[in-house]
Amino acid sequence: MSSFAPVAVTRHSAEDTAGADLNAEPGSLTGEMTGLGTTIKTTPSPATFHMDPEKAKKYLENIEKFRILVIGRNAGKMTILQRVCNSVDEPDVFDGDGNKIDNVVVQGTLGCGYHKIKDELVFKSNPGFVFHDSPGFKAGSAEQFEEMKRFVMGHAVARTLKKCIHAIWYCIPMTDYHRTVTAAEQKFFNECDTGHVPVVVLLTRADALNFAAFEELLDEELEVEEAEERVTERESLLLEKWQTHIKQMLDKCKFPPKMYLPLTKMYNESADCTTLIQCTASALNEEGLQRLLLSTQQSSIGLCIEYAVNWVVGGMIKRVIERGERYDIKVFESLLLSWFPKHDIVVGDFR
Fold first, then answer.
1. What pLDDT was estimated at residue 97?
2. Going from the N-terminus, what domains does the chain have, and what CATH number goes with each?
3. In whole angstroms, what is the distance from residue 71 CA to residue 74 CA?
4. Contact, 71 vs 194, CB < 8 A?
């Protein structure tokens, strides 16, 4: 199986990608393409705007959960949510009014699409996340699409902060890599304005390209042993090719996604979701939401440290060195620890 890591692509304009060619030489598709795809930058992406710390604190006090809407064809969506929440169990499901729905009724429905988009999926292992699932819809299904569109647009600007969705994961399965961008995807990204809520396209089950790569090598009349030696490299080229194709198609839409991220090996219970969380954090528009996401996730304490150092330590250096301002150490410690509210961190750990 492939060993390449998940990667992310930041959004460019349609003009930037209009000339992309599926037959282009690997690495020439964008300036960020390297080796096994596109590398995600380690420096935290700057948020569009920042609140005053006190206002941000009051704002976030009204947001108890980080809400993510998962859209698209089912291709391991439940598995991804389980990995993010470090769980192997099914989530508890609540209706729009907060009433728990019998698990017997909803078991397996994330794959079958029997539940409603308003239903809330919550894992006991990490109740800080609330997931909403929109089953895959066909382009001709006006009723399904309009229901999803009303939910997205309504919850993107919900008056009740506790009901706002903060990010959208749109899943495109690479098991169907020959039909990655269907009429349904084009309809969504042309008609559904998510406002300030970022959409991250997840290329799920990218491991499926391993078999396709092996078949290609055998079709080229390579011996099995040689094909096995070269399959990882060919798999990487296929991922780069189809990822660029998807980006080229969707970036032409009226409301294109903000980032793209292939996911591999999610079938492993120990799969690392750090890059998925980092990609989502980079796509967010507000520093407070980045902090909420990172303090909710349990994949990597390192991400909390990285963002805390970038925002808090970076801000302190700028004020003290560049502006000559005095900096209160207690304020500094408070701001630093605000990135770790759900982790057992004490002030002494940073001294």
1. 81
2. 9-297 (3.40.50.300), 300-351 (no CATH)
3. 8
4. no
